[in-house]
Amino acid sequence: MIITDFKTNFHMYENMAIWEIASLDDFFKSHEMLKEIFEKEYKCSFENHKEPTANFVDSDIEVVHKLLDYFGDKYFIVFSNNNPEHALMKEFQDKKTINFGMDIYVLHPNKIYVLEMDKTKDLQKYDN
């Protein structure tokens, strides 16, 4: 999802939760099928992606973003400390548009965060 679309249509989403991802290893441990998706996307195994012959160039946040794009039934916004998506999350907190259940300003600088959500089934919300 494009973050600017979410900014104008946030009311169409529900069941929001924030993931805190300490490392790609932890990310893959949380969902075993992500390794299969990784191999499909990158044409190498996760275990071998750091070898010089793999020519792997994506950052950890890019990997998380690409892999989560494979899940069609959920919507995700991937962000980290002080990137453009984080700035939008701060704006939502300041305007009290979304209660994240945490202070979105206080993020660990070396972790990746994911806002996971479902598109609402309440058709009246589409009229706003």
List the keywords:
3-stranded antiparallel beta sheet; 5 helices; single chain; 128 residues
Question: Can you tell me about this structure?
Answer:
By secondary structure, the protein is an alpha+beta fold. The chain has one domain. The protein is built from 5 helices and 3 strands; from the N terminus they run αβαααβαβ. The protein has helices spanning 3-9, 24-30, 34-42, 60-68, 84-94, and strands at 13-21, 75-80, 112-119. The protein has a 3-stranded antiparallel β-sheet with strand order 1-3-2, sandwiched between helices.
Layout: helices, strands, pairs:
Blueprint lengths: L2 H7 L3 E9 L2 H7 L3 H9 L17 H9 L6 E6 L3 H11 L17 E8 L9
Antiparallel strand pairs: 1-3, 2-3
Summarize the structure.
The chain is an alpha+beta fold and 128 residues long.
